[in-house]
Amino acid sequence: EIVLTQSPGTLSLSPGERATLSCRASQSVSSSYLAWYQQKPGQAPRLLIYGASSRATGIPDRFSGSGSGTDFTLTISRLEPEDFAVYYCQQYGSSRTFGGGTKVEIK
Amino acid sequence: QVQLQESGPGLVKPSETLSLTCTVSGGSISSYYWSWIRQPPGKGLEWIGYIYYSGSTNYNPSLKSRVTISVDTSKNQFSLKLSSVTAADTAVYYCARDYRRTTVTPGYFDLWGRGTLVTVSS
Known about the structure:
heterodimer, A: 107 residues, mainly beta, 4-stranded antiparallel sheet, B: mainly beta, 11 strands
């Protein structure tokens, strides 16, 4: 099973700042089959990024994904108030596993 | 647009079987894969398994011995059964579309239901 480790656990930032979230895999994720999701309290997760770097339909361009192999990054270029949430990475190249999540909170 | 809605009992007794149904509306269940995912209160996400509209399945190895996922294309629904439940199975259960860009590439979850909380308690 591919284990995904997300860091940091919590990121305290102000609106307008840049957020950089990390997702590290215990073994290489084939063909960059990695996705990112955003989850707000009481809501289902929402797909942001698939294929490591492709934005899902309707996702603003301030969200970007990068990486390959075992190291992946989600970047939010300028945080908007609605971006404060928990973010999960997920690999789908070998079965499906999720990372533990990174909470982006208002500083 | 396509929407998913989970339904089923919110309370299940230990050792019994948890049963949930996901109804797909606004589109056909055919030609897609569909997954169940759960999230214990305050914790992260765990994939349970998927089913293709034809009936083929794939389960999380950690749950495989207790899970059955089935599909009813006539009702545009798919279902989850999880047997021998314990308190550790208490979670919000989500159904989701397991979207594949091609027939040979694996899928990610592009559409989600709102989730339903299932509590295991006597």
